[in-house]
Design a protein that fits this description.
CATH class of the largest domain: Alpha Beta
Largest sheet: 9 strands, mixed
CATH topology of the largest domain: TIM Barrel
Strand order of the largest sheet: 22-21-24-19-18-17-1-20-23
Radius of gyration: 24 Å
Length: 517
C-alpha cells in the first residue's frame, strides 16, 4: 500500500531518491492513511519562544554546593568540564536567583574578587564566597549561548526577618534594583568600567522576586502588586528596553494572583511567572518514595505519567486566568521539577524511568507555546541533588547530563520556529510538532512501558522527501547515568524508515524534509 507521505515499505530505510519516486506515485488523500499514521497539519499556529529550554541556577549553600562546585579556584574560572557540559546542553536562558535572591545584595558580587565579602546563605545554610557575581554569571551565559536572567531582591518578597539579621539588613529596595540595571546596561556606568568591564552586560531579562505568594511570611497580594509597579517603574526608567517578569501564582488562600496582577500592573510587565513545584505523588501507597520504585518500576512509570497530567492542568488554569489579556504577556515557568522523597535526592531521577514524565512536560509547554514563553524542568547544576540538569562530580571529574537534561538537549537541538498541529497519532505516543520553512520537527515520547509503537507519517498537502531520527531508547528503562557512564543517554541518529518503530519508553526527535519552493 502507498501511504500519502510516500513512506511505505514497513521497516525499510528509504534513500532520498526512493522517497521522491514514491512521492510521485502517492495519490491517497490526506488522512485517509493507515490508522497508525502521525498526521500533521503543516499550517503554523503560533511562533515558538526561543526560551522554552531555560535553566535555573541558585547558590544552595551546604544543601548542594551548586555554584561553588562549578568554580575552579586553581584556574579562577568556571570549571572547563562544567562549561563544556552547559555548552552541550545549550540552554537558551539561565536564571540566577531563587530564595537566595531574598537576601542577595548584588554589590557584594561585583568588583575585585579579593574584596568581595562572604555572605551567609540563610535559606540553604553555610556561606557563599561571592566569587561568582554579575560579571562571572554573564560570562558563563555568553560562553554557552544563553541569555542571562536575574531575580532582583524584591524587598525580600516581604519576609521581615531579613531586615534585622545578625549580619544586618539584607533587604533590597527598588532603588537597589534600578542601580543594578544601570550597572549592567548603562554604557557609561563608571563602577562597571572601573571593575574592568568597559562594555555593558546587556541583561534584558529580570524577575521581580521569587515565589512572592508562597508561605505566610511573604507579601500580601495587594502589597506585592504595589511594589511590582514601584520596582518596574524604577528599573525601566534606567533602561526601557528590559523585559520584566512579575509573580502570578497562588497566594496563601489558594487564589491565583495573575488576574489582579495584570489588571493593575500588566502595563509594566512582559511575563507572569509561576513555579511548577510540588509535583509530588498523592497516592498513600505510592512507590515514588525512597527506593520503593525498584520493587515495581512499571508502576513507578505510570505514577510519573499521572503526575505529568498536573502540568497540563496548571498551565491551562493559568491560561484561562489570563484570558484575552494582551497577547504579548507570556507565561514564564522559571522553576519546576519533580518533588519526590527523599527531598530533591530520589535516585529514580538518574534513571530513564523518569524520561516519559520529562518528555511529556516539555511537549506540554510547547503545545501551550502561544502563552508559555519560558520553561524549565530542573534545577540547573549541583553535586548532590538529583533534580539537577547538570551533575558536577567533586572534587574532580567530568560534568554530565541527567536524563531531564538529555531530553532538553535533544528537543532543543531539533525544534522549529513555529508550532504545528498533530491531528492524529497512534495510541501511546505523546507528540509536539513544529516547523521552520520546509522542515518539520517532531518530539515523540512513547509512553508505553512495555510496548513498541509503529507509525507512518502524513503531512497535509505535502509529501515528505527525506527524514532523520535522533533517538534515546535504552533497552532497560532502569538504565541510569553516573560518572562511570556519563554518555549513556546520548541520542542515536538514523535515517528515517517508511514505518518507524518507537521502542518502549523511548524519546525521539524526528526531522522531516518537505519540498522546497
Amino acid at each position: 500500500m502507498v501511504c500519502p507521505t510516500t513512506m511505505c515499505q514497513t521497516g525499510t530505510v528509504i534513500p532520498r531518491r526512493d522517497f521522491l519516486a514514491l512521492a510521485a506515485a502517492a495519490t491517497t488523500p490526506l488522512f485517509a492513511a493507515e490508522p497508525n499514521a502521525i498526521a500533521l497539519d503543516p499550517t503554523p499556529q503560533f511562533d515558538l519562544s526561543p526560551h522554552l529550554y531555560m535553566q535555573f541556577m541558585e547558590p544552595l549553600g551546604i544543601t548542594d554546593s551548586s555554584v561553588e562546585a562549578a568554580w575552579d579556584y586553581d584556574q579562577d574560572d568556571w570549571r572547563k568540564d562544567f562549561v563544556d557540559a552547559v555548552r552541550d546542553l545549550s540552554p537558551n536562558v539561565i536564571r540566577f536567583g531563587g530564595l537566595f535572591s531574598r537576601y542577595y545584595l548584588w554589590r557584594e558580587g561585583v568588583g575585585p574578587a579579593a574584596n568581595r565579602p562572604a555572605m551567609r546563605n540563610y535559606a540553604w545554610g553555610g556561606k557563599e564566597t561571592n566569587r561568582v557575581g554579575t560579571r562571572e554569571f554573564v560570562d558563563l551565559c555568553r560562553r554557552t549561548g544563553a541569555e542571562p536572567l536575574y531575580c532582583v531582591n524584591f524587598l525580600s518578597d516581604g519576609e521581615q526577618r531579613y531586615r534585622n539579621t545578625l549580619e544586618g539588613n539584607r533587604t533590597g529596595d527598588a532603588r537597589e534594583a534600578a542601580d543594578w540595571v544601570s550597572y549592567a546596561n548603562d554604557p557609561d556606568q563608571p563602577d562597571r568600567k572601573r571593575h574592568g568591564s568597559a562594555d555593558p552586560f546587556r541583561i534584558q531579562l529580570w524577575q521581580l522576586g521569587n515565589e512572592t505568594s508562597y508561605g505566610n511570611a511573604t507579601f500580601s497580594k495587594d502589597d506585592a502588586i504595589a511594589h511590582t509597579i514601584e520596582f518596574a517603574k524604577a528599573m525601566k526608567q534606567r533602561d526601557p528596553s528590559i523585559r520584566l517578569i512579575g509573580w502570578g501564582d497562588r497566594g496563601r488562600n489558594g487564589e491565583l494572583w495573575v488576574r489582579d496582577l495584570l489588571a493593575r500592573a500588566g502595563e509594566h510587565l512582559d511575563y507572569v511567572a509561576i513555579h511548577m513545584m510540588g509535583q509530588s505523588p498523592k497516592r498513600a501507597d505510592t512507590v515514588l518514595k525512597g527506593i520503593r520504585y525498584q520493587r515495581d518500576p512499571e508502576r513507578a512509570w505510570h505514577e510519573l505519567l499521572e503526575l505529568s497530567a498536573n502540568i497540563e492542568t496548571r498551565v491551562t488554569e493559568l491560561e484561562q486566568a489570563i484570558g484575552s489579556y494582551d497577547k504579548r504577556i507570556g507565561i514564564a515557568i522559571t522553576e519546576g521539577h519533580l518533588s519526590l522523597s527523599p527531598h530533591n535526592a530520589n535516585p529514580i531521577l538518574c534513571e530513564w524511568l523518569s524520561a516519559a514524565y520529562h518528555a511529556r512536560t516539555f511537549n506540554i509547554y510547547q503545545r501551550h507555546g502561544a502563552r508559555v514563553k519560558m520553561a524549565t524542568a530542573a534545577d540547573f547544576q549541583g553535586n548532590r541533588w538529583t533534580v539537577s540538569a547538570v551533575m558536577i562530580p567533586t572534587p574532580s571529574g567530568a560534568s554530565y547530563l541527567m536524563p531531564v537534561a538529555s531530553i532538553a538537549r535533544l528537543f532543543r537541538r531539533h525544534t522549529g520556529a513555529q508550532h504545528i498541529a498533530v491531528k492524529s497519532a497512534p495510541p501511546g505516543l505523546d507528540i509536539a510538532a513544529s516547523r521552520t520553512a520546509n522542515r518539520i520537527f517532531l518530539h515523540v515520547a512513547n509512553l508505553e512501558y512495555r510496548k513498541a509503537v509503529e507509525a507512518t507519517f502524513a503531512v497535509a498537502g505535502l509529501r515528505v522527501q527525506s527524514g532523520r531520527v535522533f533517538e534515546i531508547a535504552p533497552e532497560d528503562l532502569r538504565q541510569y547515568v553516573n560518572p562511570d557512564q556519563p554518555n549513556v543517554f546520548a541520542p542515536r541518529e538514523s535515517p528515517l524508515s517508511a514505518t518507524w518503530r518507537f521502542p518502549a519508553g523511548s524519546v525521539t526527535a524526528i526531522e522531516l524534509d518537505l519540498p522546497t519552493g
